[in-house]
Amino acid sequence: MAGEQVLVIDDSPTILKVVQLVLTKAGFKVFTATDGEEGIAQAVAGRPDLILLDFVMPKMNGYQVCRALNDSAQLKDVPVVLMSAKGDQVGERFVKVMGIVDYITKPFSPEAITAVVQHTIEKYRKIADSPPSMADGSPLTADRTEAARVDAETVGPELSAVSSDEGPALEGNLRSVPLAEVLSLLAAQRQWGVLTVARGDERGRVEVCFKAGRIELALASGLGEEFLLGRYLVEVSTMSRQDLDLFLESRAPSTRTGKPIGEQLVKMSYVTDGERKEALIRQTQERLFELLRWPAGRFSFTATRELPPLAVDAALGLEIDGVLMEGFRRVDEWHLIEREIDDFDAVFLRNEEAVQNVGRARLTREELAVLELVNGKSTVKEIVRSSRMASFDVSKMLFRLLSIKVIRRRVAPVAV
């Protein structure tokens, strides 16, 4: 193969130089860009045969670049290979998302990057030369990736689509079809309806309500106390946790109206309607971020204009792009955290000498709050419950405290 054009988009000058040198020696014409905006401009100027893309970059991240490519009739069929610095933990999650067809782990050898580029270009040249396997007009079709085609040949029984204005329209397995791809598809087609996602271990269930491709609300069951609305109301308003607890305790079964707590608190002037909506936005986003971490489960989308009353009342109108960008960042960060905190039943001890050396004044308020709950007895799960913070936030604080060695994991004694 000679003369094929490869565009490399990465904010690391070292990576750009190394990849350009290696692929040029292999006979490719290599162009480089240091951020997403520059990369898109170069791709428009001269359509490449392949794009090598870093995910974490300034101005535009990898997902935003893929969205822009997908919106371009000239570039939507260009295959994209992700260059991941976090190994296959990150790479596997982005393959099949918005045209990312493969990934390679940094650092990589010259032989590895050359082999990936050659294989991908050959594969997609054959696909382009072969007749299309799907008739135009399929009700649910992703533009950019071969893996997103909804037909029996490419997906098999894991994903099925039904052409219908009302009723079940899409269902599948999260192991085979990433949730981000499903969300992007529903947004791109401006769908109305409810996407139901059930975790593989049946410990959680979320219903994402769509109106014209935007998220109106995410209803959930079995996710735990940290995802209840009360926590977010306390965060976004002047209402204290003590006041909320007193309100909840005062609600005798005989006096309960069945109305949502947020609506009751607004009516009783504990919070404003704006604060309630802001809390609902935070709650829905956090629930979606949690969904993106689920390794297994089933999903089904029911097309309907009759959304649940709570979703109609909330009318959040959240854009998918913003949710996915933050969600991907969190997934990436979670993988780093889980290397140190891989068990929510783990127990940590304070290193008082290290705390004195570091100085409490150098710790953030959130770090100090979590540090006070580290007592050599409480598990991570119990710290999350006591702190009234999200498990992501508590784990992030513990990870930081571990990195500066002011806490350490408690090791069970070994019998001699």
Largest sheet: 6 strands, antiparallel
Radius of gyration: 24 Å
The rough form would be described as globular
User: Could you give the count of β-strands?
Assistant: 13
Count of the domains: 3
Beta-strand residue percentage: 15-25%
How widely separated are the two ends? 65 Å
- Rounded average pLDDT: 80
Structural class: alpha/beta
Strand order of the largest sheet: 6-7-11-8-9-10
- Compressed to H and E, one letter per element, the order equals EHEHEHEHEHEEHEEEHHHHEHHEHHHHE
Model description:
- With 416 residues, the chain is an alpha/beta fold.
- It has helices at residues 13-25, 36-45, 62-70, 88-94, 110-129, 179-188, 229-236, 241-250, 261-267, 273-293, 309-314, 320-338, 352-358, 365-373, 380-387, 391-403, and strands at residues 5-9, 29-33, 50-54, 80-84, 100-105, 159-161, 167-173, 193-199, 205-211, 214-221, 297-303, 348-350, 407-409.
- The protein has a six-stranded antiparallel beta sheet with strand order 6-7-11-8-9-10.
- It is globular.
List keywords for this structure.
Rossmann fold; Arc Repressor Mutant, subunit A; 13 strands; 6-stranded antiparallel β-sheet; 3 domains; globular; 416 residues; alpha/beta
